[in-house]
Design brief:
This protein is mainly beta and about 120 residues long. The chain is about 0% helix and about 50% strand. Strands 2, 4, 5, 6, 9, 10 and 11 form a seven-stranded mixed beta sheet that branches.
């Protein structure tokens, strides 16, 4: 089992930065691929970023490429999403998720465990 808890969301001005954290309290973290998704009001949950179990391979959506970075510290059972050059369109609830799937995947259905989400609001 995995229990994921996100933190680090908040209100920031356009152009600013935030770092989201997602910690697994159960300690089985390193067997899972980890991902970040986001859901804006009235829209579907969409893929943001994913990282392999060993942290060596990351894949990000076109919308956040070169602005956001995903990395993990398995010793601390934590995955991070560093968000730079934030835009108002980045406003959403951000969710982290864990997947037993080894290959890179952006599909929500291939993630087995989800956190409760953290709100990110970017003002113009």
């Amino acid at each position: 089992q995995v229990q994921l808890v996100e933190s680090g969301g908040g209100l920031v001005q356009a152009g600013g930065s935030l770092r989201l954290s997602c910690a697994d309290s159960q300690g089985t973290f390193d067997v899972y691929r980890m991902g970040w998704f986001r859901q804006a009001p009235g829209k579907e949950r969409v893929f943001v970023a994913t990282i392999s179990r060993d942290g060596r391979n990351a894949f990000l959506s076109d919308a956040v490429q070169n602005r956001f970075y995903i990395f993990r510290e398995n010793a601390k059972n934590t995955v991070f999403l560093q968000m730079n050059s934030l835009k108002p369109e980045d406003t959403a609830v951000y969710y982290c998720a864990a997947s037993r799937t080894v290959p890179t995947t952006a599909r929500t259905g291939e993630y087995d465990y989800w956190g409760q989400g953290t709100q990110v609001t970017v003002s113009s």
